[in-house]
Specification:
This protein is an alpha/beta fold. The protein is 37% helix and 17% strand. The chain has five helices and six strands. A six-stranded parallel sheet has the order 3-2-1-4-5-6, with helices on both faces. Helix 1 packs parallel to helix 4, helix 2 (42-57) packs parallel to helix 5 (154-166) and helix 3 crosses helix 4.
Length: 169
């Protein structure tokens, strides 16, 4: 699919050109948190909602963006989302909400997927977040400042990410 080849080129270019200030601040000082993920099932949706609630209880301002694959249900339409239709034939992201999300300078941006999604990686490549946190993968290391080694459930990944970012001082 040409769209994916062009997307990969655009993503790599965005990754190289992105001059966002990357630094982790102590978690307690963090105010804005971004969460991005690919829609999979109701359980994952529930886990993300729980995480958002937990972060809000800690006084964090949270924004969520989800990638909605074809033939997947958008549970509750609770979060902003983008789809493959939001990419042009040339792989250019055309979703206003996704572009705005990528331009937000979050203190921490959590990418909560067990398998990397090239469409979400494009948003991460453009992201102005100070510290991008994701699951460990050698090939995706340029997209993150903090990577978590974790094999298991989405809930386990969320808990491990949260635990390690809380330790940042």
């Amino acid at each position: 699919m040409f769209k994916m080849n062009f997307l990969k080129m655009r993503t790599n270019s965005a990754l190289k050109k992105n001059k966002a200030m990357r630094t982790s601040i102590p978690y307690k000082q963090a105010q804005s948190i971004g969460i991005i993920f690919t829609v999979e099932d109701k359980q994952k949706h529930h886990d993300i909602k729980e995480f958002v609630h937990q972060l809000e209880q800690e006084g964090k301002k949270v924004q969520v963006l989800e990638f909605l694959p074809e033939k997947k249900e958008n549970h509750e339409f609770l979060f902003d989302f983008f789809t493959i239709k939001d990419f042009s034939y040339w792989g250019k992201l055309q979703s206003h909400k996704a572009v705005k999300f990528s331009e937000t300078p979050f203190d921490f941006l959590f990418y909560i997927d067990n398998q990397a999604n090239p469409l979400v990686l494009d948003v991460l490549a453009r992201s102005k977040a100070r510290c991008r946190v994701g699951k460990y993968s050698e090939t995706e290391s340029p997209f993150f400042e903090l990577m978590i080694e974790q094999n298991g459930t989405t809930k386990g990944l969320i808990e491990t990410m949260h635990k390690y970012t809380q330790k940042l001082r």
